[in-house]
Design a protein that fits this description.
The protein has three helices and eleven strands, in the order ββαββββββααβββ. By secondary structure, the chain is α+β, with helices and mostly antiparallel strands. It folds into two domains: 75 residues, Ubiquitin-like (UB roll) (Roll), CATH 3.10.20.90; 76 residues, Ubiquitin-like (UB roll), CATH 3.10.20. The relative contact order is 0.19.
Length: 162
């Protein structure tokens, strides 16, 4: 048996499940549909491994070759989440797979904006005033399939008091 973690479209819940050691992609997709109670349009869902990436030129890189023990998988109907990030009067656009973690998203955004890793430690990604994207959150957990896009704010975690 293998233990895996399932994440879903527009849902921050993480569902740990046990699967057969020889489980295939279709087996995991069926378990995902059951765990997230998806009946209609279930054939429209794709599973993404947490470490899959999309490069700046749009090329997809798939690291996952088999279902791995303790792997995190994200089920979503969008193949790409178009993400617009606002920071200090700048706006930049990015493309992420739904399984991209908050940590990887913050790293990519910081790099593109020329923010050093040391300075990026004090920054947060927010969906709105009350919702912070945590390092382990999948970006697809904040968006549904209707427009496959998300707006984020990059803000300082430090409050300056004068």
């Amino acid at each position: 048996m293998k233990k895996i973690y399932l994440h879903g479209e527009n849902d921050r819940a993480i569902k740990p499940v046990e699967i057969a050691a020889d489980a295939a992609y279709q087996d995991v997709l069926e378990i995902f549909k059951r765990e997230f109670e998806i009946a209609d349009l279930a054939q429209d869902y794709f599973l993404f491994f947490e470490e899959d990436e999309i490069l700046a030129d749009g090329t997809e890189v798939s690291i996952e070759l088999e279902i791995v023990h303790k792997g995190h998988y994200h089920g979503h109907r969008c193949k790409v989440i178009k993400t617009v990030v606002s920071y200090n009067s700048q706006t930049k656009e990015f493309n992420f797979k739904p399984s991209a973690t908050g940590k990887k998203v913050l790293e990519a955004i910081s790099e593109k904006l020329g923010i050093s890793p040391v300075d990026a430690v004090d920054l947060l990604l927010k969906v709105d005033e009350n919702t912070i994207v945590q390092g382990t959150d999948h970006i697809g957990s904040f968006v549904g399939h209707h427009d496959c896009s998300l707006r984020l704010m990059l803000v300082s975690d430090k409050v300056v008091q004068g």
